[in-house]
Structures are given as C-alpha cells and as structure tokens.
Task: structure prediction
Amino acid sequence: MSSSDKNKESKQAIFHINKEENFPDWFGEICRVAELADIRYGVKGFTPFPPWSYMTMDIMFDFYDTALKRKRHLPMLFPTVIPEGNLTKETEHVEGFTPSVFWIGEIGDGEKLEERLALRPTSETAIYPMYSLWIRSWRDMPLKRYQRCSVFRSEIKSTRPFLRGREFLWIESHNVFTTHEGALAQVMEDIETTKEVVTGDYGLPIMVFKRTQWDKFPGGLNTYAADTLMPDGKVIQLPSTHDLGDNFARAFDIKYLNENNETAYAWQTCYGPAVSRMFGALISVHGDDKGLRLPFKLAPYQVVIIPIIKGKNADAVLEYCKKIEQTLDKAGFRVHLDDCDATPGWKYNYWEMKGVPIRVEAGPRDIKEEQVVVFRRDIMKRESVALKDLKKHIKALGKEIDQTLKSQAEAKFEGLVVDADTIGQIEDAMDKGKIARTPLCTIEMEGLSCDEEIKDKTGGEIRGTRIDIDEKADGVCPVCGKVAQDIVYVARSY
Ligand SMILES: [Zn+2]
Result:
C-alpha cells in the first residue's frame, strides 16, 4: 500500500452541495475536496494543479493537439519572456494588454536588466517579429503554427481557480496567409475546430458570436468567440479566434514577395483555446450535487475497480480484480484498481465525488457467476455484466455516458434565450438568469454608449451577433431608438 492510500481514510469521500442554488460554494469546495487546485500556494491567482485536474487537462490538450495537427498546424514553442520593445511596437495592442503585464526588471542581487522583459500575456509580440524573419515569399504560406504554454495576466478582478487565474494554460495558434480571404477561411476553420473539440469531445454546448467592435481583440479587425453557460446563469467565453487583418503585419513588418515579385503585407489570424478555463467550465457544467461527473473521453481514470473483499476470499477476489484490470488496460482503457484498505462504501463515495465515469465492483459471488457489477456515475445506475462482455460493454457505455452528459448540458442551454425589446425586459431576463435576445443599433461602432447603458441598467453584457445561426435584425435599439442593424445577445458573464 502506498502512503497516499494510507491517507485515504482522513480524506473526505462524501460531497453534497446543491450546485444550482449554491454554485460559488460548490465550485470552491469541489476544487478542494476533489484535489483539483490548491489555493494555499500563497500568491494571488496562482494555484498548483494536482494530478486529478492536470491529468484531465492534459487529455483535453491532446484532443486539441490532434484536431490542430489534422488541420495542418505544426507545434512550436516560444520563450516565456518578451522584450519590452516588442510590446511597444504595436501601440494598439499594448494598450490592450500592458495594464495586466508582469514585468521582470532585474536579476540576481538587483542588477537591472537593460530592457525589461514581460511574462507573455499572449504571444503575438513574441512570435511576429520572428515571423517577419521566417516569411520571405508566398511559398512560405499558409503558415499555421501553434504552441501549448501558460500565459500570465495580472487580473485585477477577483481570481478563482481555472475560471480566472493569473497564470493559465492554453494553446495559441498563430497563422499567416497571403490574402484576407485565406485568413477569414482560417477563422471559420477555427470555429469548426471549437465545435468539434469543445462540444464534440468535451460535451460543452456553445453559442458562437461575432463580438462587438468595442469588445474585440486589441489591434485586430474582428473577434469571433464561443460562449457556454455556467450553472449560475452566467456565460463564460471559451475559445476565441481573431481576424487580425494586416495590422500586425504592418506593425511587425511581416512582408513577402508575391507571385509577381512584388512586396506585400501578410494577413493573420490567431486562436486561443484556454484549456484551464475550459476545465473550469467542464467541471461546472457536468458536475452534480455529489461532485464531479467527468466525460469518459477525458477522465484520468475511465474505470475504477473496487474489490469487495470479505475474510477468507480476499486473495481470490484481488486476483480476479487484477485480471480485469490487466484486460481493460490491454484494451486501451485508463483503469485503476483501488486495493487500499478503505471500505468498499468509502471507495464508492470517493470515486463518485471524483467523477470517474464507470465503476466495476467484484466480490466472491461475481467470481462464481463469472460476472461483475458495473456502475455508471452519470445517472448513478448499477447492472450486472458477464465478464466475457465487459470490454465491449465499457466501450459502448463510455460513449453513452458522454452523450448523456452532452444532452443534459444542451437541454439546460436550450430555452434559456428570451426575446427582449426594452431595457426593462433585458433586466428581467438577467434577474432570472436568462439570456436576452435584443435588437441593437449597431455592433460595428467603437465607443457606442448604448452598450454602457445596457450594462449599467441590467448588469448584462452584449456578447455580439450569432454567427452559428442566420438572424435578421428588425425593430429598434432599446437604448437610442435608432433602427436596429443587429440582433445581439445580452447575458451576465464571467
Ligand atoms: Zn443604440
């Protein structure tokens, strides 16, 4: 028995908090009890991620890696530090990020650096000066690259593990094209990738928006982003993709020779799936009052085996369970045999709280019958399965569990949108934790005051216009009364 097993009895196995009514408590407690993040590190916004959350995020990363590589993106890795001069090159960009940048100013015993270094808040200003050296001719494009890394932003607002941290894990993809059309096609591809991975693999329903001009990525032309719904009725931004136009190419001198041997500026996009934030959304959306419910595709342990050991049969039961473990392991499942000396009941509660999708129980009677008991965490249901069918059964059940989690999340999202034509109706929708669909004068003008007024009076933010469905504006802006050009969605957000 390992030392961590010995500690088990002192750990909490039973979790029960009403998630819908008490979401902030639920979230804080599940992070602590399921050992997802330890807030005792002592630096605001920085948290260690123990194995249970990190292993899950690692698998989430893998799904993104696979999708990006399939679409001909190549991985690379840039340094964590960016010289200050790079950040000042793109004035508009700097205004967007400078207030939240962590700076390194000295080394050793206070020796000042000649040039301050930023801990990357995002890597445009690190990568694009190199792109200006790497890109020479139209033959070098499309250039599709990405990196897995962590980024640093000194969030002024309150921090919370995963959802709002000062260091978070993400993928950033930076792509270069010879035409604006090529860049726009990449934006559409990114949106498809978001749907495939975030909804398809993580089971999180999304709405995809074109953000307003006052809410876009600093320095870019347009931002497109997916939102999902949290249990408290607020939406949270999941991956966003940005049409950077040729603004950054002009700032960082990314030029190439076209087919007519003329010099031209390149067109760029960037895409940033924040995996740690998506993990926060994942546990929030799929979890229930008893704790986590991890999708089968993502769970660090897809199957946990619990031997029902009683007296003289102990060796035979353990032997039986070990064989099952080997069989499932060989079949490619992530399987864990829990043979510590805690009671089976304690282990049931513990692994249910941890969200393991499938539990296999086996005792003396099961050996005799050549069967096992299979328990599925999503709907808390038990059934007996013949040993010879177990592999096939688990494969099918895993798919079913993922589908159930997805359908349950989708059902919550649907029917949440209400039409609102006045400020009062938007306010009413916000109070009820709904999403308001409302006409707006325009999302295309920076410095519009209608947005501020909606925010002040209703607490909701304009998330933009839907690009995943076709909608035509009618009616008037509820604030200024001008003829509406756009249909927008208003929601409280993270
Ligand atoms: Zn207006």
About this structure: Residues 390-413 form the longest helix (24 residues).
